[in-house]
Design brief:
- There is one protein chain.
- By secondary structure, the chain is mainly beta.
- It is built from no helices and eleven strands.
- Strands 2, 4, 5, 6, 9, 10 and 11 form a seven-stranded mixed beta sheet that branches. The protein has a four-stranded antiparallel beta sheet with strand order 1-3-8-7, with no helix packed on it.
- The mean pLDDT is 96.
Length: 123
């Protein structure tokens, strides 16, 4: 299993970024996908999850209305569109999966994680 995140960077408050996670080594469209972030101040924080076919999506309360998770099963890629970014969104963002393919709101028990991509929101 390989999960490779990209798309992070420095953005001003109120700006947008789109993160990508390219997956390989498993049957992508059999798996729910999740995003989790880590910051020194807040520690690990679950962000969002999406079902195998994209039909169901879930978000942490503070991300609702600002973040959108999506996936392209033809490209084996999951995305996280982040709008109206705030300084408190500064974190390393990881995509992750459970070995079983299942996914849950608020889940931290994933078996496979990418190396993460750093998002810095600052003026």
């Amino acid at each position: 299993v390989q999960l490779v995140e990209s798309g992070g960077g420095l953005v001003q408050p109120g700006g947008s970024l789109r993160l990508s996670c390219a997956a390989s080594g498993f049957t992508f469209d059999d798996y729910g996908m999740s995003w989790v972030r880590h910051s020194p101040g807040k520690g690990l924080e679950w962000v969002s999850a999406i079902s195998w076919n994209g039909g169901s999506t879930y978000y942490a309360e503070s991300m609702k209305g600002r973040f959108t998770i999506s996936r392209d099963n033809a490209k084996n890629t999951v995305y996280l569109q982040m709008n109206s970014l705030k300084p408190e969104d500064t974190a390393v963002y990881y995509c992750a999966i459970r070995g079983s393919g299942s996914y849950y709101e608020g889940d931290y028990g994933m078996d496979y994680w990418g190396k993460g991509t750093l998002v810095t929101v600052s003026s």
